[in-house]
Amino acid sequence: MDEQRRAALAAATFGALAVGTMLGVGRAEAYEHHPAIRRAIGALEAARSDLQHANHDFGGHRVAAMDAIDRALEQLRLALQFDRF
Q1: What proportions of the chain, in percent to the nearest 5, are helix, strand and coil?
Q2: Which of 35, 57, 66, 71 could crosslink 29 through cysteines, CB 3.0-4.6 Å?
Q3: Domain boundary assignment for the chain
Q4: Over the stretch 35-75, which tens digit does the pLDDT of each residue have?
């Protein structure tokens, strides 16, 4: 391969790598459908776990909050099923 072709190939490879790196930022979110809903589900699951392991019942409000979280999780999961790609 002559020097000119080698230089062109190197430039093309470098360009492709640079573009791929730029596109790779947030790549998981770019390919994941509805990342905000999935993050909300994770946050609600973590909150429910924290409440479940709390040492105090807070006058019944802890259980009520866990029930509300369960209803919210159900709605978010239904939303994901509704909008399948």
Answers
A1: 80, 0, 20
A2: 35
A3: 1-27, 32-85
A4: 999 999 999 999 999 999 999 999 999 999 999 999 999 99
